[in-house]
Design brief:
With about 450 residues, this protein is mainly α. It has 17 helices and eight strands. A hairpin with a 5-residue loop joins strand 7 and strand 8.
């Protein structure tokens, strides 16, 4: 292990990690508020007055304002609401764990571990089935007690099944986000303490010796309980499916209010629902991504997967409940075209890469040219990957832009995703480039000379 003084830090080192752990949860809560008011409103984030005594110090007053803020500490004065939301989040997580454990699955081996042993961990691949079972339960299998009277007029309670009360998620959106932030921090703390058990494989990037930084990055590479893999499960199940469920809840709320669902709301549910379905249908593809093969499972991924994704990626649908622009069909048709183009690039590039990895001699990829590296691996230099080294990122971003466009052009709030995602993908591509240079050496420089563009062929 490198000492903290000569460790190759990312994200600005320990100070950057601390700032990120404070900043991103705050941004999540602010975005849920801004989506409700429809603009970047700052005047009512902290209350003007507090319950603090007049002679209290600055720190006490500020803490009191945070506690009294309905934006940064939603429902903090209402313990029953907080407890209910915590039970819902925990119950949702455990329900997805149950599906992962009991549904039929395919056992797929991951990439060889980086310790040189050649060992490959087994993964239960059934996220696609869990996706459909979840939708079925929420649509017709939600249990509730109801009272009926028999022929004699006696009242009795029976258990019936029907549609889940989805609008409750809209009504408690901010509080659910707040509780999730707390629970993901607790889970991160548990995983960090667990990483000090003997005999565990640690992630190189999360083993600096600096506790704060390692807590953020994650020390253990593949934290597991027996056959249950925490990282692979959290990467796709509770947060990603939860994102789609929140979208459906917003659509239900809009219908409750208006008596109909708008074109924009339908499109955001179709676009993002297809994105979630695609990720779960292609679940095995995640086993070769940097998140699984390289990064530890710390606060960065725990909060990102379980908090940031569901509650900020559903921002557009939340915005549309109260601020739908009622776009005309020609505009919606153009947005559909943008989304389809992005999906074509994204899925075409990723599908080609995955097919080549599975069998380079398969008919659909055998015509592709590649660079044979000294490590024995092959880097594609034609097809989608001959156009740009991160052409899949470009398609991903174009899809994200279409999600923002369905909200119209009157507010910048829904466009946070396009702005944030561009920054994320640029940063991730820099990380990828650095790691590939270490991995492939001179071969990577040669590959970049063959495929000189990063995102857009002929441009950048």
């Amino acid at each position: 292990m490198k000492t903290s003084s000569n460790f190759d830090y990312e994200f600005g080192g320990p100070i950057g990690a601390l700032g990120t752990m404070i900043f991103l949860p705050l941004v999540t809560l602010l975005l849920t508020y801004w989506a409700s008011v429809g603009s970047l409103e700052f005047n009512h984030i902290l209350p003007a007055e507090t319950s603090c005594s007049p002679d209290a110090g600055f720190a006490s007053v500020y803490i009191s304002k945070l506690k009294d803020s309905s934006v940064l500490c939603p429902s903090c004065a209402e313990s029953p609401v907080l407890i209910s939301c915590a039970c819902v989040i925990i119950g949702w997580f455990l329900f997805q764990v149950l599906l992962e454990r009991i549904l039929p699955c395919e056992i797929v081996l991951g990439a060889p571990l980086p310790d040189g042993s050649g060992k490959r961990l087994p993964y239960r691949i059934n996220g696609h089935l869990a996706f459909w079972v979840t939708l079925l339960v929420l649509d017709i299998g939600w249990p509730k007690w109801t009272e009926i009277s028999d022929e004699s007029g006696n009242i009795k309670q029976i258990l019936v099944f029907g549609r889940a009360p989805m609008t409750w998620l809209y009504d408690n959106y901010s509080t659910l986000a707040f509780v999730t932030i707390i629970l993901t921090t607790m889970l991160s703390a548990y995983l960090y303490m667990k990483s000090f058990d003997k005999g565990l494989l640690l992630a190189v990037g999360g083993n600096s010796g600096n506790h704060l930084y390692d807590f953020f990055m994650g020390r253990e590479l593949n934290p597991r309980w027996g056959g249950f893999d925490w990282k692979e499960f959290c990467e796709l199940r509770p947060g990603l499916i939860g994102w789609m469920i929140l979208n459906l809840a917003m659509m239900s709320k809009q219908y409750e209010r208006l008596g109909y669902v708008t074109g924009s709301m339908i499109l955001i549910n179709i676009f993002q629902g297809l994105y979630v379905w695609d990720a779960l249908y292609q679940e095995r593809a995640i086993l070769t991504t940097m998140d699984i093969t390289t990064d530890g499972f710390g606060f960065m991924l725990v909060f990102g997967d379980l908090g940031w994704v569901p509650f900020t990626y559903s921002l557009q649908s939340r915005y549309l409940v109260d601020h739908d622009p009622h776009l005309q069909w020609p505009v919606l048709a153009c947005i559909i075209g943008v989304n389809c183009f992005g999906y074509l690039v994204f899925r075409g590039a990723n599908g080609q890469k995955d097919a080549f990895r599975r069998n380079p001699n398969a008919a659909e990829v055998s015509h592709l040219t590649y660079l044979q590296t000294k490590r024995g691996t092959k880097l594609l230099t034609s097809g989608w990957w001959g156009m740009a080294r991160k052409i899949n990122y470009t398609g991903d971003w174009i899809m994200g832009l279409s999600w923002c466009m369905v909200c119209g052009f009157e507010s910048i709030v829904p466009y946070y995703y396009a702005i944030y995602f561009a920054i994320l993908l640029i940063h991730r591509s820099i990380r990828d480039d650095h790691m590939c240079k270490e991995k492939y050496g001179d071969d990577w420089d040669k590959y970049k000379s063959i495929v000189p563009y990063r995102f857009i062929p002929g441009v950048v």
